[in-house]
Amino acid sequence: MSQTDTSPQKKQKKPTEDRPIIVKGARVHNLKDIDVTIPRNQMTVITGVSGSGKSSLAFDTIYAEGQRRYVESLSSYARQFLERMDKPDVDYMQGISPAMAIQQKTTSSNPRSTVGTTTEIYDYMRLLFARIGHTISPKSGREVKKDSTKTAIEELHQQFEDGTKFYVLFSIPEHEEKGLEDELRVLKEKGYPRLLHIEDESILDLTADEVDPDDLDADNYRVLVDRLILKSDEDTRSRIAGSLETAFHEGRGRCSVKIRDGDELNFSERFEMDGMEFQEPTPQMFSFNNPYGACDTCEGFGKVSGIDEDLVIPDPTKTIRDSAIAPFNGEKFSENLRDFIKVAARNSLPIDTPYQDLSDEVKEILWEGKGDYIGIRPFFEDVKSQSYKVHMRVFYSRYRGYSRCPDCKGYRVRKDGLYVKVNDKHIGQVAEMTIGHAREFFEELELSDFEKEVAEQILYEIRKRLKYLDEVGLEYLTLNRKAKTLSGGESQRISLANSLGSSLIGSLYVLDEPTIGLHPRDNDRLINILKSLRDIGNTVLVVEHDPEMIKAADNVIDIGPFAGVHGGEVVFSGDYDKLLESKTLTGKYLSEEKKIPVPEKRRDGSGKSLVLKGAMENNLKDLDVEFPLGKLICVTGVSGSGKSTMVHDTLYAAVENEFGTYKDNIGKHRKVEGLHNIDSVEMVDQSPIGRSSRSNPATYTKAFDGIRDLFANTRQSKIMGYEPGHFSFNVPGGRCETCQGEGIQKIEMQFMADIELTCEECGGKRYRKDVLQVKYRGKNIHDVLEMSVSEAIEFFVDEERITTKLQTLEDVGLGYVKLGQSAPTLSGGEAQRVKLAKFLSKSVGNHTLYFFDEPTTGLHFEDIAKLLDSFNELVNNGHTVIIIEHNLDVIKCADHIIDIGPEGGFAGGQIVATGTPEEIAATEGSHTGRYLKEEL
């Protein structure tokens, strides 16, 4: 074929890098046979009203296919299940890269898992401490080092001038088995007949002098190996080295040098100092997940079951004289307090200083005792020893809980691990730092040239990870924070930072609303992170409602026009400027053609208040906060400022405890005033409405009870003798017993995530075939569960008992959700709105205090408008609603705002401003106020 031939065979294919991701004919869930093109190496945002099909496209179609293709490349063991693993319902897909989903899930429920271990920072720290850590003796504070012939000679030349006379010695061997007489005989036979008296330097010759072993003070004598004069020439150095080697060998790793008329210098080839033998650092020694490195007492958890300090000292702002120690307040044990006051008078200890301001030394005496005073810990040991008495058992149980491990002081690592330091800090102290402080610590680390060379790569990895965590706005988290206590948004941002740290390229990242839990101030940082993920050569696909994120996208896909059966179409695809001109719901809100209006006036409330006094949990700085009742209250502030700690862990916990139903720890505070003004309390958070896949919106709102009664009353049911129970998939009777009414079966995969497959017996319909024969208006029970809430309201239009319960789901914007949708598949925001619907359906009556934790999660502007109507309905019915929120549309509609900050972590926990949105917007130094000003 000639060089100039341009036949089609020679036409080169475009490299995969430039080929876009093409999806044709996607029909997963409610998607209506749609086609989409996603440009490669760009950031695409998929937006649209809640339930329109965004996640169906991003996760259930594009990500699922990427995952399926990956599993296809695995072993035949994994592939044997693949024929049963559903392929996304789509005609054709091209250009799919290896896909990674970063979802709103708390990363781990393992109590040992921390931010440090999840991000691998702690693993690199273990390596760093093992490689360049200095072991410091706790007795003298000097560094523990192993000596060798070479280091001993160097030390002699450093400390003494040439011409110095000295002896090379080793100790007389221990003589438990042999008597001293035998030891001396062996020394003579080995050719070491002379002993040197260490103080007067007199020499005892074992061959010439008469020696009585009983009179010989062996501790003051050393075996003499050689007498030498310090010189720098090669021959003398060689002779000194030979003598030292002999002394080390005969002294079993230890020897000494006695300067003539001077000091004795001890050398040891063992890792020891001050009479203590130390372990040489290894990475395992710092691992609290490994039996070798974990503290023996607490097994690496950092806490032991015993006496809870928070229960013993419930109010740390009180002084000892002012009854800070709860167990010593009663008449029975008050003599212990009198004993302490006597000891305090003798030793000038402060008893009129608040407990929280006492020094560690005073607290040590208070807890461990001194002189006539028993101490809190020994006091409780004494109480425990009398547990055969019922009242003593009851008294002890009142103060029982978890306290910091007394051995490792809560650092989780074995003691010798804490003797190893880098820049005067042991690994536990570094793990207690926040990410921001740790970043500073590792950036400013002062190391010798040798240490820099050894630790260069390790430090690069640590600094890189800390930089990304800092940039995603998590600088307030401590490295030892337990992973299971993180919010969904925090976990997602940690996963994002991990992905950046791994520096993969050519991948597809699918993210689920990464701005959740982020203050508007931190959004820019997150957007920059996603852009850098794109810039290194990845395709980034984000499901998102945040206007800033949509604006930053290279490409926007708007799914709609509405939710559920009325959604599932691509209503717009293109760039941000074109979206503003489009007539889609999203476009109208972004171009401000449609807006959520600011209320004309703020409600006055009932005139009564709930006042939280002295809140001190985590980073809260002894706050007194007033919550006016009968209003819509927003608690705002940057991530990590202390909002959840104040509202969820302290106020809600204290109020719920007052009503006698709270089981968990209550945040430290002095008291809550005004509790008589409320009748009940409800927390509407983002936890699932049920753990079981059998739980769903119909059963949760109790609408299903009415539906089952209707089916049981049909003529067909009466003939067959079916009761309402036959139409329940939770109890045996009418349900399919193969899958026990779940419609799916779980296959446990070794070493991989479990796979869920449709039940082959009932085809996923949950019921026996005969029960599915029963029809109401032409539909069987499975058909009803497949209906969306909106369809069901039309279908059961005459049945008020059912429609009133379903109407509230419609009102909170969940008309698109199927009645039988499994609870675990609902998003956090959807689960929260199902709970809200349940409360809205209750009759008006008592004054209830409602708590909501970021209820706008997963909501489009249109849905937020509906949500606000629901909140206003609750408040207008005489209730109080307290919301933790970052969304400015909700914040601007509040009657009262409490802004916490100014920053996250240690720099937070203070009240920045309180008042109406207008008052907050006028406050200097409020980050929330700065963004509110633009909204108002």
Automatic annotation (TrEMBL):
| PROSITE patterns for this protein | ABC_TRANSPORTER_1, ABC_TRANSPORTER_2
Gene Ontology MF annotations: ATP binding; ATP hydrolysis activity; DNA binding; nuclease activity; zinc ion binding
* Single biological process term from Gene Ontology: nucleotide-excision repair
Write out the entry's keywords from A to Z: ATP-binding, Cytoplasm, DNA damage, DNA excision, DNA repair, DNA-binding, Excision nuclease, Hydrolase, Metal-binding, Nucleotide-binding, Repeat, Zinc, Zinc-finger
Extract the ranges annotated as region (Disordered): 1-20
> Where's the ABC transporter domain?
257-592, 601-933
Highest taxon above the source species = Bacteria
Q: Which Gene3D superfamilies match?
A: ABC transporter ATPase domain-like (1.10.8.280), ABC transporter ATPase like domain (1.20.1580.10), ATP-grasp fold, A domain (3.30.1490.20), P-loop containing nucleotide triphosphate hydrolases (3.40.50.300)
SMART domains referenced in this protein's UniProt entry, alphabetically: AAA (SM00382)
The secretion signal range is none
InterPro entries with a match to the protein in the record: AAA+_ATPase, ABC_transporter-like_ATP-bd, ABC_transporter-like_CS, ATP_grasp_subdomain_1, P-loop_NTPase, UvrA, UvrA_DNA-bd, UvrA_inter
For this protein, the record's NCBIfam families field holds: PRK00349.1, uvra
Query: What family does the Swiss-Prot or TrEMBL record give for this protein?
Result: Belongs to the ABC transporter superfamily. UvrA family.
Any idea what this protein is called? UvrABC system protein A
Q: Which gene encodes it?
A: uvrA
